[in-house]
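Predict the 3D structure for this chain.
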Amino acid sequence: MSDTAADDPNQLRHELRNVLAERDALHSMLAQAADRLEAVTEEGCSEEALQNARRWIEKYRRVMAAE
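Done. Predicted structure below.
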């Protein structure tokens, strides 16, 4: 961000909207990843693979809940 952008409230609002949209997209991607991982692990994985997948699913969902 340049010095002039820091002085322009419209530019700051625009940049904030972009950051918020990016955050929302990342949250959506994490939700999809958790759902897909959950679906894949339901198809007969070893207990170790299931536990590992569940840990990742929990991490993804914690990140999403942090908002």
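The CA atoms of residues 20 and 40 lie 30 Å apart.
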